[in-house]
Automatic annotation (TrEMBL), chain A:
Entry's localization field: Cell membrane
Domain Na+/H+ antiporter MnhB subunit-related protein, residue spans: 8-128
NCBIfam families in alphabetical order: PRK12508.1
Membrane association type: Multi-pass membrane protein
Protein name as annotated: MnhB-like Na(+)/H(+) antiporter subunit B C-terminal domain protein
Lineage per the UniProt record: Bacteria, Pseudomonadati, Pseudomonadota, Alphaproteobacteria, Rickettsiales
Keyword Cell inner membrane: no
Protein family (similarity comment): Belongs to the CPA3 antiporters (TC 2.A.63) subunit B family.
Cross-referenced InterPro entries: CPA3_antiporter_subunitB, MnhB
Top-rank taxon, per record: Bacteria
Annotated TM spans: 7-26, 38-56, 68-90, 110-134
Alphabetized UniProt keyword annotations: Cell membrane, Membrane, Transmembrane, Transmembrane helix
Amino acid sequence: MLKDFIVIKLILSFIIPYITLYAIYIQLNGEISPGGGFQAGVIFATGIIGYELVFGKEHFLRFISIKALLICSVMGVFLYAGTGVVSLIFSDNYLNYNSLQSNAIAGQHLGIFLIEIGVGLTVSSVMCLIYTLLRED
Amino acid sequence: MEEFFTLPFKISFVLDEMLLFIASLVLLITCFWLIISRNLIESIIIMSVFSLFIGICYLFMDAPDVAMTETALGACLSTCVLLNVAKIVGEDTGKLKKLNTLLAAILCSFFVVILTWISLDLPSFGTQDSEVQTHLTKYYLQNTRTDIAIPSFVAAILASYRGYDTLGETTVILIAGLAVLVIVSRKNNHA
């Protein structure tokens, strides 16, 4: 078991907060720098899987269950599609964010922010889900 | 429009090309190593190294998004998943059912020929007057500032102009997770 190696445990415990912080940075700055929801989700999942590697599956499943991961991944797609439906309600095209706010550009910013969060949520939870399911008990 | 084509952190063109050449050489070496390696764990680690170096290549070719994805997904996540699968399957691959190697070899060479043939039609790297650069990219470059007004053009194309595509991709990722869930839970129920 990896948690018996004190050096690996110490280094991974030190580096996981920075990985998570980097993922949040990429998620929130997707509009002005490279990266976006997909990259942020993958890096966030990397941090979570590092945690799982160090502390084991039992410790990991105490905080988040498979059902919660499944709900998170569906919620991401739901948020994405729901943003499109909101613009449909304001009698605009599907996934056209111009009508989300009074100003068209502000609406675009809000729409892009929302769907990036949806993509990040789905990607990170699906990656964690696949990893956790294929983990040998 | 000029400032979007020149990057401020570019070191120098010659050094860039040299580093790209070295990384490509390492890629070729890892490919041949992967072909001749017989150990399952060793193959997985070589694939991880391959992903890391192709990520460096992407970074030198000015695609930081793709480099980020390839390094996190290919070098870290898929390696973790594959190592877990290798733990389940077992290191000894001798007792696994042998596939028909001849048929697989013919199929693989067929794919190599087809892909090489297609790649002859592609424009060379960084060409300005190719078909893609003259029509669609021109429209995006000219209209992103007035339509969406965000500095990252990739995010603008991905999220706004091509919103349907990204919705489809997200749904595909969700379906992949659900498929793994269905397969694994079926195995557990029967056993």
